[in-house]
Amino acid sequence: MQSTYWTKEGSVYEFEPPAQPAKDVSFEADRARSDWRDIPLRLNGPLYYAGEFEVLLPEEGAYEIVGNGETSAVIGGVDVSSSARLDANRLAMSQTMRSILTELPANEISAARRELARFDRTLPVIRSGGDVRQLWEYFGEDRSRLAKLEAAYAAAIRNAEPDDPNAYRNRARFRAGVYDFAGTIEDVEAALAIEESRDLFLLRAAARRELGNLEGALADLELSEGLQPDGSTIDAQVELLALLGRTDEALALADELQGLIDDRVGEILVKATALA
Question: Taking residues 208-215, what's their average pLDDT?
Answer without folding.
Answer: 96
